Amino acid sequence: MSTIAENIAKVRARIRGAAQASGRDLAEIGLLAVSKTQPASAIRAAASCGLRDFGENYLQEAVEKQAELSDLALTWHFIGPIQSNKTRALAEHFAWVHSVDRLKIAERLSAQRPPGLPPLNICLQVNISGEDSKSGCNPEELPALAQAICKLPNLRLRGLMAIPAATPDTALQHAAFARLRVLRDSLQLPLDSLSMGMSDDLEAAVAEGASWIRIGSAIFGARNYSAPSTQGTLP
Ligand SMILES: *Cc1c(COP(=O)(O)O)cnc(C)c1O
């Protein structure tokens, strides 16, 4: 077995264990493999283990890998910060965007979604950890933003996403993820998605209702570099 296959088996066992411990149905928990900075060959290896959903943070890098992997039926999720001049390419190349945090971006994605493609699935990113993180809307802005996005014709609002401040304290992990679930439920909209949990805290996320856990290093190993230095200057 390749390392990636072994890693995927371990991640699946962790998800299974967490689902069992919290009485959740495994079918409700999607494994999103976060493949940023990983070569197309690593994605191909993960796909051969049955993974279909891949998350990318950098547009240019993602589009290049999508072209290399166009023989595979993969579903691509964008999970990185969004600049408004990148929305057209996002609307063209992805099935999901998890990191929408303002109306202007949502309006552009809806307007630029190519005719003939299904609506773009959207998660609203919420800043649930306060001042540490710059991405995500404030919880107070969420109801108005969600209502407005629901009216956009070419988007389908699916739920909320968060990247809580990393902590080894499992009680704090649970509290942060529970907060996102409560926020989602408080919107009283038909939202089926909670995008939360990464390699180090997936158990807490599954217990608190995650529908997508976003797993990078536990599948692909440590990333060699943190971000392409050209990010933000590409056409
Ligand atoms: C990189 C990244 C992940 C994966 O993180 P790991 O700790 O490597 O599992 C998940 N979500 C987002 C938004 C990321 O940028």
Could you list some keywords that capture this structure?
alpha/beta, Pyridoxal phosphate homeostasis protein, PyrdxlP_homeostasis, PLP-binding_barrel, TIM Barrel, 235 residues, binds pyridoxal-5'-phosphate, Ala_racemase_N, disordered C terminus, globular, 8 strands, pyridoxal phosphate binding
Account of the 3D structure:
β3 (75-78), α4 (87-93) and β4 (96-100) form a beta-alpha-beta unit. The model is unreliable at 227-235 (pLDDT under 50). The protein is globular. It has 235 residues and is of the alpha/beta class. It contains 9 helices and 8 strands. It is 39% helix and 16% strand. Pyridoxal-5'-phosphate binds at residues 34, 36, 57, 79, 163, 198-200, 214-218. Residues 34, 36, 57, 79, 163, 198-200, 214-218 line the site of pyridoxal-5'-phosphate. This is Pyridoxal phosphate homeostasis protein. Pyridoxal 5'-phosphate (PLP)-binding protein, which is involved in PLP homeostasis. Pfam families: Ala_racemase_N. Keywords: Pyridoxal phosphate.
